Amino acid sequence: MRWEQLMSVSRRQAEPKTRAAAQDNTMRRRLGRTSLGRHAHEDSMPDWLAALLRTKGEIKTEGVVPVLKQLLEQSKTTQYAYLCHESVHHFSKLKLEGGFCGYRNIQMLISYIIATGFKGQEHFKGRLPTIFEIQDIIENAWDRGINVQGRIETGGIRGTRKYIGTAEELGNTVSNPDILTALANRSKAVLPKPSQTRKLASRKLAF
């Protein structure tokens, strides 16, 4: 057998192993229920839940922070407290909606951008994005090559109930005005590295 033929056979034998190794490496990086919740492996949420989110939207309360500030000032045990901007709206879960806390926290952040006229607010046109629109923001960012590790770790989030990074870590990143603008621009969303920021969605947003 000629040398060229030997090299060709060697390459053909090595290619399946290389592909298998690459696939195995990808599988090892896929996160499970501990990080993404009990619906980590679903392809889509139930139709009834999708309909609920589309028709009911969100539970939004304005003026929470000023009241909280007043209570803290009146409390004799308060030594110091850190509050977010008074224009931030408080979002809570719909009954039966499940673990969408990360999305609700992002809506709180965007409520600040809109209410204060912060740089990038024009992209929202005065309206808060829905859970499905936030999923589109993130998926579109992955399509553009931004933080694509998130797609590998989650397997994609569009139309699912998988957990995403919560606002505690997200806030550290979007404190940069340039990133805030990118988050507001639905075609250029930027989120923290999933491996560094994804926590259980049960964690609370600290006022």
TrEMBL record:
This is UFSP1/2/DUB catalytic domain-containing protein. Gene3D superfamilies: 3.90.70.130. Keywords: Hydrolase. GO terms for molecular function: hydrolase activity. It comes from Verticillium longisporum. Residues 78-168 form the UFSP1/2/DUB catalytic domain. Residues 1-29 are annotated as: Disordered. The keyword Transcription regulation does not apply. It comes from the Eukaryota. The lineage of its organism: Eukaryota, Fungi, Dikarya, Ascomycota, Pezizomycotina.
